Amino acid sequence: MKVSTRGDYASRALLSLVLHQADGPTSVRDIVERTGLPQPYLEQILLALKGAGLVRSKRGVGGGYVLARGAAEITLADIVSAVDGPIQAGDFGLPHTDGACEHEGQCVLLAVWWDAGERMREYLTGYSLADMAAMAQGDAPWPDVADRSAG
């Protein structure tokens, strides 16, 4: 499974909003300057995040984007789902619960793919924007990627 560029950019943009939320609404230009994200693409992503109820926009002087909910209430799963759709291992459908399958091995593989997607959803739900901000500011430990990549 792979998080899309859209999911990564959306997460980076929202993390920037959290890290600078004390400054009030943040303009697209400020997010671009802080994150290096391409502005036209970021504007599309912010519209999707607004449609999903994760951000609100304020017009006029001093306007920009703010979180629509608290940082502790928005998870990485929420963000990725808002811009990419449901988190899943593939578009295979649910396994048959009665074991009746049309092709050899189909049911067991559908069950494995569904389980893989569920584990990814659970993992991303375990990280909120508040968690990510605490890590970025050095107030919480980062995930230990060194141990996992060595295996």
UniProtKB/TrEMBL annotation:
GO MF term list: DNA-binding transcription factor activity
Pfam families: Rrf2 (PF02082)
Top-level lineage group: Bacteria
GO cellular component: cytosol
NCBIfam families: rrf2_super
Name of the protein described by the UniProt record: Rrf2 family transcriptional regulator
Species, as recorded: Candidatus Neomicrothrix subdominans
Phylogenetic classification of the source organism: Bacteria, Bacillati, Actinomycetota, Acidimicrobiia, Acidimicrobiales
